[in-house]
Amino acid sequence: MKIIVVGGGAAGMMAAIGAAESGCAVTLIERNEKLGKKIYITGKGRCNLTNDCPADDLMKNVVRNPKFLYSSFGAWDNSDTIRLMNEEGCETKTERGGRVFPVSDHASDVIRALKRRMDRLGVNVRLDCEMTALDISGGLVQGVVVKGGEIIKADHVIIACGGASYPTTGSDGRAYEILKKIGIKINVPRPALVPIICSDDWIPSVQGLSLKNVKLTLLDGKRKLYDELGEMLFTDKGISGPLALSAGSYYEPACRIVIDCKPGLSAEKLDERILRDFKEYSNRDFSNSLSDLLPKSLIPVVIGLSGIAPDKKVHQITGEERGRLGSLIKGLEVHPSGTAGFGEAIITRGGVDVKEIDPSTMCARSVRGLSFAGEIIDVDALTGGFNLQIAWSTGYLAGTRAAWT
What we know:
Blueprint: E1 2-6, H1 10-21, E2 25-29, E3 50-51, E4 62-64, H2 70-75, H3 78-87, E5 92-94, E6 99-102, H4 107-121, E7 124-126, E8 131-137, E9 140-146, E10 151-153, E11 156-159, H5 174-180, E12 186-192, E13 196-198, E14 210-220, E15 223-234, E16 238-240, H6 241-248, E17 256-260, H7 267-280, H8 299-306, H9 319-330, E18 332-334, E19 336-339, E20 347-352, E21 357-358, E22 363-364, E23 370-372, E24 380-381, H10 386-402
Parallel strand pairs: 1-2, 1-11, 2-7, 11-23
Antiparallel strand pairs: 3-6, 4-24, 5-6, 8-9, 9-10, 12-20, 13-16, 13-19, 14-15, 14-17, 15-16, 17-18, 21-22
């Protein structure tokens, strides 16, 4: 059986491996000059290739359509990913939060491991080869049309050419239009795991400030869209870092963000802490009394938002003013105006509607001889290696099941 895999990223290479292991003759086509171009930049070049959490926890970190991945994770889970890497000479290590990296800290070693497995299985890789259309006759895929007009024939085609994030790596969303033309429903692609742009005029003054052990809550009215503890970073235009990126996956227009700078303290305990500091610095100006409580660059912001005069003596601050200060520290609001866009998004939300796909095989329901894998599908997860695990799992399932159809 002849199978074409479109896309030489994580999902595509794993699909090629799964199909070749099942005895198929596999050709993988990749529009770039090398395989795994996006893998090279994941994890800041280190490649957070999966997460070493219990298998049952994988779906808990999937933001959209987690139940769709039940069969995929069952066919190939995080332990399988780690085993493959180790078998192919890419030793792994587990860091904070279960994040798994190559021991070398080089993403290139992950790509080389996959390439070694594909070479041994006889996968034919064609680089600088871009799909421009699908060759379909009578509702059955016959192969793919590539740039230049060549038609590559196959019994089955697996689409694994990514979403629209980091378009310079080749995943620029062109495949969506090809799929729309054959009647596949595409949910509007949007950036996910992406920095958030904020309209607050004080944001540039704290550019570069990193906050640890804070709580970020994303709210749509009173409804919590996201609520987690962790780290974040202020940029010149908004917020980034782990908490903000994850919140970016849940972002909706008109939502707001509340940052609890002291989540370990209740409002009452924080008030006691402020009282202690105020007693110690009772003769100071208010502007010089918060250095034990807040980062230096954040102090002018909090003072400005509190409505308390900076030169007011600490012993003159009223209980009502102190309560306002505590509420501000426990509930610092920022106002999102959008996200940084696909150029800075780690992953794409949206894509091929999961209703178009049989989750037990990754095959299209409406077009015979067609499967999907990876970011092209409307599934996405939080940071920590989970999105790459989705790619490995859906790719392997698509490859092995394509051999049966």
